[in-house]
Amino acid sequence: MINHLYPIKFTPILKDKIWGGDKLKNLLNKPSHVSKIGESWEISDVEGDTSIVANGNLEGQSLKHILSTYKADLLGKKNYEQFGNTFPLLIKFIDAKEDLSIQLHPNDALAAKRHNSFGKTEMWYVMQADQDSNLIVGFNQPMNSETYLKHLNDKSLPEILNFDTVKTGDTYFIDVGRVHAIGAGVLLAEIQQTSDITYRVYDWDRVDSSGNERELHNDLALEAFNFNMPENFRVHYSKTENKTNTMVSCPYFTTNFLKLTETISKTNTKDSFLIYMCVSGQVIVKSNGVSTTLQTGETVLIPAALKHIEMVTDNATLLEVYV
User: How does pLDDT run across 128-155, given as a tens digit for each residue?
Assistant: First the structure.
């Protein structure tokens, strides 16, 4: 069945968010008539939000269906043995016109016990940031539950959080149990485990159009916190042109940085699918006799059975992701 496989694109699943803006529409050309689009889910197997193929002979079929059909040819042998007919990653672009809530995510054990879900380890790559825009990651001082709860209860939580001003290319690894938030003015790519479990602990006291505050999850969050995490969340990586540069490698995914100024050929030696997110420029991805064009803000899935890939470009920046 490998003859039926090719570089697969999916129809983006757009999410209207109270904090969303218009960059996904205006900068990444996502089709929307809604004014506050916060997220574009590029590849998703989250229940109720399964991606649909947008190109080729599988067009119109769901990710869940093609995974159950092609199995290890799509995921890779070890991945299929581990995950079965569940795609292990959720791939997004996020536009924060306003600050997101301060939040954290549970680990695998806690998420499985409470929600029958994976945990939510994730990473961010900043694609564009307005002047003085920031991300919140971790605390600005040694922390424990008593100090945290004191500031939470007297609404002074921002005083103990770490704010980083960011620019294009800045990259962060957000481990489970670490408090974080995307700040206003930031457009980023997010790679994460397949999970939609988020514990909001503070939402800036804002209300929706009906005057209602969003639900907080402080009781759930307290058990999920890890107050003793090292400050290793800033990712330092090389940017050698036309080479594979490792950014993040963790048990859940590996992400590489590719700055391409010429056509290259790649061989997939991993027992895994590959995902390419185009974060700037344009590239034509060729494999198994099929050519697929990626513009800035587009994503493609290369099935594990396809081992030879050609990338035709003179200027593109890509994130390469696999498990």
Answer: 999 999 999 999 999 999 999 999 999 9
Identify the domain boundary among 160, 189, 224: 224
Position 253 in a domain? yes
255 and 203 within one domain: no
Residue 240 lies in a domain: no
Residue-level pLDDT at 314:
97
Q: Is residue 232 part of a domain?
A: no
193, 303: one domain: no
pTM of the model: 0.96
Q: Other C-beta atoms within 10 Å of 302: how many?
A: 26
How far, in Å, are 42, 179, 195, 273 from residue 54 at the CA level? 11, 36, 23, 18
What string of DSSP letters covers 133-180? -EEEEEESS---HHHHHHHHHTT-GGGGEEEEE--TT-EEEE-TT--E
Using alpha carbons, select from 73, 97, 75 the residue that is nearest to residue 86.
75
Q: What is the largest CA-CA distance in the chain?
A: 61
End residue of a domain, out of 189, 224, 259: 224
Q: Which domain holds residue 84?
A: 2-224
Residues 6+ apart with CB under 8 A from 312: 263, 283, 284, 286
C-alpha dihedral (218, 219, 223, 224), degrees to nearest 10: -40
